[in-house]
Amino acid sequence: MRNTTAGNSTDQPNSIMKIIKNSKDHEDALRQLEELMVADPAPGTDDDERLQLLAFLIADYEKRIVKIPQASPAEVIRFVMEQRGLKQQELVQYIGSKGRVSEILSGKRELTLKMIRALHAGLDIPFKALVQEQGFEVPDKIFVEDFPFNEMHKAGYFPSVLNEKVTAIKDRAEELLHSFFCGRENDPMMAFNRQSKGKAEIDKFAIHAWRCRVLDRAKKAKRGTYSHDGVNQALFSQLTVLSALDTGPLLVRDRLAAAGIAVVYEPHLAKTRLDGAALWHPDGFPVIGLTLRYDRLDNFWFTLFHELGHVAHDLNVKAIGFIDTDIDSTSEKEVEQKADTFALNQFISPDDWEELKHLTTAKEIRKAAETLAINPAILAGRLRREAKDYGRHRTLVGQGEVRSQFNLL
């Protein structure tokens, strides 16, 4: 006859009836639990209560200590396939091809964000079961087709896959864009762009990607501490004199860096028609981005000073910037007229321009530029612009003399 009296429970060690702290306690508790289960105590007896308490303590310890391996995404997908009677062919619509389905199920290839979203939406598999990183959250969707992904890859926006062909990374496009933007894909940005109007529509997504690229590069650039008080006429005068030197573009970059202003040269993306932009970096300093779209000295200096005008007068204003117009066109915005005027007058004052605007020969232009201590390309470029005749003074505007200084050929 089975003994179920309270006295029988006194044979069990009292030390186990407390929180289990280590593997030895765990093993002892499992052994005693097994003995009690074999004895099968009657409900309500001391041994029955001991059995329930041991089971609770063991479960508590295992929940706290014992790590049960989680299923891999491939195992989760195989389980769902088995439960629903799915064949590999039926996963192609979510993963992309028979070959990729096989690679995913065998663990040879990791799921992309696109695949994860498709499997979640199509098969109702929880996101957490499809990702391997602890604490990883599936980010908001980036629509790859909005951005010039191929062009961005060619320009080096994705350093982790720099040497891979775009066809080999197409299925990872969203992850790469997420890695590049780091949550900035929809963020408003204070920036003033100098660009041609043109007839074609501007690609705002390409502009935003270019801006983010410029800000990323500016963060890595060496520079001094920025103070808005240092952006003054003394600085502007120093910079105009540098224009007369052969290595002026390099020297002006270094001088502005010493003043805490980062100057970044980043080629434009298609459908942006950008010459440059003035931006405010989240770390608290101004950035001038230049595309060098036109490899001419006159364009370089006017674009640089146009953006410097924004740095001097606009970037400290707490407002979101806008797309401004080309320096050749009549601006509808006062702030752009101000930047245009600033760029023109820093090199040639209104009084000097009245005396110089009728110059026609290369000899006259060079002599006048020497007197003003500026590069003759600047005066030649303004004469072309004011006359709207871009065929004149071709040999004076410094064609092909900028990009080579920055190894951008």
Structural class: mainly alpha
Helix amount, in percent?
Answer: 40-55%
Termini separation (Å)?
Answer: 98 Å
Number of helices, counting only DSSP H or I runs of 4 residues or more:
18
Largest β sheet strand count, sense and barrel closure:
4 strands, mixed
Question: What do the pLDDT scores average to?
Answer: 86
What does this protein look like?
The protein has 409 residues and is mostly helical. The chain contains 18 helices and four strands. Helix 1 packs antiparallel against helix 2 and helix 14 packs across helix 18. Helices cover 47% and strands 6% of the residues. Strand 3 and strand 4 form a beta hairpin. It folds into three domains: 58 residues, 434 Repressor (Amino-terminal Domain); 38 residues, no CATH class; 216 residues, no CATH class. The longest helix is centred in the N-terminal third of the chain and has 19 residues. It has a four-stranded mixed β-sheet with strand order 1-3-4-2, sandwiched between helices. It is elongated.
Short description:
With 409 residues, the chain is mainly alpha-helical. It contains 18 helices and four strands. It has three domains: 73-130, lambda repressor-like DNA-binding domains (434 Repressor (Amino-terminal Domain), Orthogonal Bundle), CATH 1.10.260.40; 144-181, no CATH class; 191-406, no CATH class.
Task: List the keywords.
3 domains; mainly alpha; 434 Repressor (Amino-terminal Domain); 47% helix; disordered N terminus; 409 residues
